[in-house]
Each structure stands twice: as C-alpha cells, then as structure tokens.
C-alpha cells in the first residue's frame, strides 16, 4: 500500500494549488494522509474526489466548515498498522515521550503544524512523521512532502521529497 503524507497546504493563502509533483503522488497513492491546515474546503473536495482513500484532520488555520467535516484526530488501520493523524503535537523538546504517552495504541503518528519535516521513533516504538509543507517552506530549505509503503503491518520506504 502506497501512502502520500502531506500537511500545512494552506491553499489558497500560501499557494493557489498543490504543486504538480504532489498531485502526481496523489494519483499514485493508495491512501492520502493530510495532517491539517487545509485553509479552504475546496482542496478537501478536490482531494476527496481524486484520492483513492483520504484520511485527514483539521488544523489551527481551518475554519468552521473544515472543522465540521473533519475530525481533530483521525485514526485508521492500514495493512494492520494503526495510524493517528493530528495537526499539533506541541514543542519539539520532549515530543517523543509526550506522544508515546498520549498515543499508546498508535503505531504511526502523522502530524503537521510546524512545517518542519520530522521522522523519529520513540522508545516504545511509536513512529512520528511530519511531512513538512508542500507549499510553505517557512524556515526550511525547501517545501516537502513524504511517501511511504505499508505491507503486513510494517511501514517502509519513508521518503521525504523536496520540491
């Protein structure tokens, strides 16, 4: 199963649309995971229509319509692996310990908010992934997104793509 992980798209405030390589990745993915800050419901509509399966949550920049349509926390099991998708996880310092305690029944936590890519594993085995932002690099050298594969309860091939 091929995954596309994105967050902090901020369409249309930071970009008019997602970059072409991200749309290509949507077409190749079995599951698109979006960790919040969509900004406009039209992107949710377009991704929902185009993605085979879309799993997403709302972020702090998402208004009432997106919060009505999306959960604050999305949970899904894919190929035997338990995923949780949230927007915010707080400060980077101590994140692994806090998230391991907050999500003891999760295998992979996908989050956003900072626009800073993140890939670590806690002592308890929880994998933390932040794909950065494909449209707003902030203090990063480039805009980013992630892809990964899941098979038989194992996450593999986690790749950070720079735009």
Automatic annotation (TrEMBL):
What is the E.C. number?
A: 3.1.4.-
Q: Which residues form the Calcineurin-like phosphoesterase domain?
A: 1-151
Q: GO molecular function, one example? A: metal ion binding
Specify whether Metal-binding is a keyword of the entry. yes
What are the record keywords, sorted? Metal-binding
| Names of required cofactors | a divalent metal cation
One Pfam family in the UniProt entry? Metallophos_2
State the InterPro entries in the record.
Answer: Calcineurin-like_PHP_lpxH, Metallo-depent_PP-like, Phosphodiesterase_MJ0936/Vps29
- NCBIfam families, sorted: yfcE
The record's PANTHER family line, in alphabetical order, gives: VACUOLAR SORTING PROTEIN VPS29
| Family affiliation | Belongs to the metallophosphoesterase superfamily. YfcE family.
UniProt-recorded name of the protein: Phosphoesterase
Provide the species name: Mycobacterium dioxanotrophicus
